[in-house]
Amino acid sequence: MAKSAGIVLIGNEILSGKIHDANAAYLCRELRALGVEVRKMSVIPDELEAIRQEVAQFAAAYDYVFTSGGVGPTHDDVTIVGVSRAMGVAVVREPHLVRLLEGFYPSNLNAARLKMAEVPEGAELLAGDSLTFPVIVIRNVYVLPGVPEIFRQKFEAIRERFREQPFHLRSVFVRIGEGTLADFLNDLLTAYPRLLVGSYPEFRHPDYKVKVTLECKDPEYVDQALTALLRRLPKDAVVRIE
Amino acid sequence: MAKSAGIVLIGNEILSGKIHDANAAYLCRELRALGVEVRKMSVIPDELEAIRQEVAQFAAAYDYVFTSGGVGPTHDDVTIVGVSRAMGVAVVREPHLVRLLEGFYPSNLNAARLKMAEVPEGAELLAGDSLTFPVIVIRNVYVLPGVPEIFRQKFEAIRERFREQPFHLRSVFVRIGEGTLADFLNDLLTAYPRLLVGSYPEFRHPDYKVKVTLECKDPEYVDQALTALLRRLPKDAVVRIE
């Protein structure tokens, strides 16, 4: 079984259509490439109770949880408190982070900025030697910032800890529509129940109508299924295989 | 109170990073412009139980629910069954949709294609005169397809039914950072509790450091709050107002 992950984006700005999130799509791609299966993603407002509830559910349901957003110094940054409540721990000021902030703001470390030294009690700090500011993790919940550049920097600094057996993917581009294809795919899934099959219609592509994806962590299983599918499909249906 | 909405995207292809969803961002923007507040968005796999659970929760929590994806003819298209279970109704074949499909596929309306005539029992069909295929709605749940072009066509055909009093938005671009800004915004929220305040740091813009947004359905309230904020901020802090 692949390890599972859930992603919680915390951001009124996404829900109100002001900002188009880029972090979730990036993280879905990265985790997939690492062999991790993202099972759910959600976007919730910057509200304590919403964060508490969502993070608690995700932390119980998935191997890894990633949050994005709500970790700055302003009034609407309540992720640390929300995550702490979700995990049933207090919010504490972390001495190492205080020292870091004292270095960044030697003359103007006010209360708002000091908020960024707060962590859920029992949290670990990761990748402190390669990052300006470490990643905060409490049990299986990784707290990441919303700003895309920093989100990526932080994930890249910790990504190797998530690597496992990769998924193997083959794509078959066909010039028959989904309505005709459906029976072939159902038969294929009956014969290869462990296969993950996707079918993606493309209405404006001149060459093909549907991209079919076959996936599994076992490369031989994917290859056998691919051979079986190609044997079943009408001869002129296949445009190309990737 | 603004009407609330929730968006459920059904799609393994988004979770596995194969496709970058465009429907949710589009819908968040459109609904906001119509005066509707999107309270939550989630992406779940093409799985019956996941769909049932999520749609049931959303339908109980929000005025409007929009689903995207999982409505085609293939094995993984289980949204109609999932939504039906969420609403506690049977799946039925809708005679009007059968006639439409007979028109589209006069000689090859197979079982897979006929699946697209299935709806939750009690569903209404909307915008049938302007669309090739109508929008399916069951109580407060609008079932939309995942293909972005068709998703938009369908939403545009029904959008006016969601229109209400708009949000009024003013944006203030400042050259002070969030750490300095935080106290001003906290004071502002104490004086104007009905205000929705956003603060969006921009690390690479040459002109400003943070974009502050003030929002409310009452335009006078926003203007009063804007005046109050400008009075409080240091004189050279403001770059521009939009």
Short description:
Chain A is an alpha/beta fold and 242 residues long. Chain A has helices at 12-15, 23-34, 48-61, 79-87, 95-104, 111-114, 148-158, 178-191, 219-232, and strands spanning 4-10, 37-44, 64-68, 91-93, 118-120, 124-126, 135-138, 141-144, 168-174, 196-201, 210-216, 238-241. The mean pLDDT of chain A is 94.
Largest sheet of chain A: 6 strands, mixed
Weakly predicted, low-confidence segments of chain A:
none
How many H/I helical runs of chain A?
9
Shape of chain A: elongated
Per CATH, the architecture of the largest domain in chain A is 3-Layer(aba) Sandwich
- Number of extended strands of chain A: 12
Specify Rg of chain A, calculated over alpha carbons.
22 Å
Q: What do we call the CATH homologous superfamily of the largest domain in chain A?
A: MoaB/Mog-like domain
Report how far apart the termini of chain A are. Answer: 25 Å
Mean pLDDT across residues of chain A: 94
What is the H/E order of chain A?
EHHEHEHEHHEEEEHEHEEHE
Question: In percent terms, what proportion of residues of chain A is strand?
Answer: 25-35%
